[in-house]
Records
---
Amino acid sequence: MSRSPSVLPRVAGLAPVKAGVNGAIRTAARVLESGRPGDAVSDQARQLSLLLRKARRTRFGRDHGFDAILAEGGRSPDRLVASYRKHVPLRTYERLWEEYLSSAYPTLRDVTWPGLIPYFALTSGTTQGATKYIPVSREMLASNRKAAWGMVRAIMASRPGSRLFRGKLFFLGGSTDLEQPAPGVRQGDLSAIASLEVSELLRPYVFPPIELAHEPDWEKKLAMLVRRGKDEPISLISGVPSWLLMFFERLLAETGKSTVAEVWPMLEVVVHGGVKFDPYRSAFDAILGSPGISLQETYPCSEGFIAFGDPTTGLLRPITNHGLFLEFVPVDELDRDEPTRHWLGNAQVGVNYAIVLSTCAGMWAHLVGDTVRFESLDPPLLSFTGRTKYSLSAFGEHLISEEIEGAMAAAASESGAVVSEWHAGPVFEGAPGYHRFLVEFSTPPADLEAFRLALDADLGRRNADYAAHRSEGVGLPMPALVAVRPGAFADWMRAKGKLGGQHKVPRMDGGGQLTAELASFFRSADAVTAELEPGSVAGRP
């Protein structure tokens, strides 16, 4: 007698079954995490070899001599990597799209990866960029699942009494309303793709249900998530920090509770990623309301799941055995014709690297646009430092996003403020010009000028070039500061059609055009609550 397809998910959702599953996963996690860690360097060499063998008959593989690379590499990891670099140059997405993807899109079959690409993750990287169509293969879906399970395993091993799978895992993602540009091919938000690929047996452990995840209107979806989610036994929630905070605020308004822990007493972990978390930390600590809720960093991108926060150290643990080959280029060499390419076999601690991926979806030697720094090599542990395009050097100050993120967090802490969003860019007025910071506070400082002074001083401590350009006689004045009301950046994102899901506010604008656009939008929307003009070259304005 055949069993109805709907029976197994119903059985999987029964409380005794969930308790048994939770116990089994917790035991397996403890055993696997206590074992001897693998050799990350050997893992990476093996992944590169497997990727090359899999894709050697594709158009890209033939064009770049994958057979020759494998022959030249032999059994030596170093020779294999050196041969790969010789035959396969670094590429931006734009170059790969122009040379290989655009002519075949939307039906990519045996172009850069064997078989038909079933999905494209649509992303602009930031709200400034044009849409990118990132290939997502079946192998990449499996890679992402393996990485996610690795993260869950590490979480549960670090929490001996974890009840993660006795509750529900909440993924605050975008709409799952995917387009179909060709038969057998769909495209849309990466979280939409992941939601559709969830096994039926996992549905009882996941929120939101598929019919709610399909809602395309972000505002309507957010309201429905609050109404239906408040009574669910949520044990984990994952999302972009700014959207998580927005959801939490609405959740508390709906329930009348003062903290998230009161609404969801089973909540163990908040998974965040996509941006530096430091400026958000105090806001999350206050709104969560329980030291027992862990903050778990994760580093996925549309091209692949790169790393997750190590529960012991808090640093990012790169995943080295799931279909990605990672390379690292010193950021200060990116403008060279042939920058140095490192891998786990010869990377160095303390260097700010641009990360390069070769993936099981056919992205080869691809400059992702993110920057990282190794804090340890044995085991490999990373810090996310920002974006390659997120820098301010209009006046020779060479500020990177990590430095501004840290200074923003330090100024907030010193002044008792909580920052929810921010953006910085140059203004080319006067001689030589100045920086403008646009800051949304969920808790404003008692003294905005004190916040600016703390921000300016901390930037000078972190960056010698900034300090030199701010010194007397050089001429770079105290930055201008525009404070905006809560929700102002979300209003701008809504106006750009980028509200919700995985979209993020662009932190920095090297050219100043976006900074000017944001300032104009906030003023026209009557969203500015206070404004400080650029101050004196040194000291208090």
---
Amino acid sequence: MTGNDRPSDDRTADDSSAPPDSADSDDITSADDRISADDDVDADDTVGTDDAVDTDDGVSTEPTTGRATVSTDTDGDGDVPNSDDATDETDATDTTDTDAPADADESRTDAAPGLFDDLLSGEPIFENKDVLRPSYTPERLPHRNEQINNMATVLVGALRGETPSNILIYGKTGTGKTASAKFVSNELETTSQKYTVPCEVEYINCEVTDTQYRVLAQLANTFIDANERHIEERLADLRDLAERARSDPGVLDDPDVVDPDDAEPDATDSPAVEFDSVDGIERRIEQLEADLDEFEPVPMTGWPTDRVYSTFFEAVDYHERVVVIMLDEIDKLVEKSGDDTLYNLSRMNSELENSRVSILGISNDLKFTEFLDPRVKSSLGEEEIVFPPYDATQLRDILSARADIAFVENALSEDVIPLCAAFAAQEHGDARRALDLLRTAGELAERGQTERVGEDHVRDAQEKIELDRVVEVVRTLPTQSKVVLFAVILLERNGAQNINTGEVYNIYRRLCEEIDADVLTQRRVTDLISELDMLGIVNAVVVSKGRYGRTKEMNLSVPIDDTEAVLTSDSRLGDIEDVQPFVQARFDS
């Protein structure tokens, strides 16, 4: 390409006004600065990092764009435009490139709002939503002072170094059992630290940890971790003491420099009250290091149960402490694994040398102790505390206290809390249900981007919670129960009223044939209908037909569309392609 072929847009603004061949001497570089097209270009030949770099053929590549431009001798004397011109050309290009990302950013800013932008556009209603969850332990529990004081009266013995009596707490769901027990436990541990009394509370949810092996393994590993932390702290103190004693043996004569645990000898201590030499400190360090190496965590499976119990026993008895083991949903543990765990825990105090263990059990079932061994029952139920259901007024107080923390100011209309309390009072005084209602109502209002939670949000939340409960219950039904329920739905969809057991059984058999399932007897199907009635999915009553005997008549008591959707989401029931002929055949027969 010649100089005459150079595109006009490759020139700077100044170059376009004056052609290169008319440039005066000021526009031409000096002989020392001149770079010939035939010269080899090296690092020293470059004018600057942003300048164009000439190659052997006179073509330069701009670093920022990679675009090739041509620098040629325009006046025939072998000179090229000066470095200022080259810089001007590069700068012009750089300015254009720098603006490009800015334009892209501007286009992104002006783009339509994204999915979460719309959701974040409204003002928040919640200040702290976690306050409305069951896992939250409040600083004050309204209307549970009597039960809390009773627990504190029993457990105060732990702060005196005594073994507290075992406690069983009863009450229906949502009556504040777990929250009150955790509140007392937190106070107990806080007070024990204030008075430097070794007292610990370990919480286990037996609905999750529901076997003897798992309970003992979880406890063993908890105390192993605590012992390791205890030993590591002691080792740090002793190593520091040994270092000081080497440089100043007189520190061992200080009556304040003693092994803090030697006043009450246990598995970690030597008989000496004070260290009389650095060697004595070193021996203690070696002993603690050996103890640290001996700890072996319990795997969640694979060990014999007696080995797991032995490991737990040694871990809890490693040094002096009073331990309160809180077993929430204790009836689930007994139902799944029997009373062996409770028997071992309740009788281990007779074998422990340094520690003492107390059990605090929490149950929704007031009758679960009837299935316990008499020896376990007598030792476990030394103290019993009953939590009665809340009434509407008490629920209103609980919700008001939580709402002050959970919501921003003026986020609730006046009728929200009374309505939530009234709905929950109908559910046997369940505070958990009341809190769920209030939280769900707030979430619905927030999704609708309304400024306040109103009565309509509470009613919508009531329907949503009830539907969620139905969906969860139906989803977890056994396949045979799902088929029976599907038969009831098909009959109701075709106008049947007061459906009897025989009609359900006829449709049930045809559905089983369609999905290739085993057909149960009519008596067994009647039992499944009774179970559905107990779960509140159907409403079944026994009706006498005189000399023709008795039968059950039923109607669906849950939303038909939502229930059918859950049933057809099952892979087996979803295989039914055309059930209408079966129902029609039933009416024609």
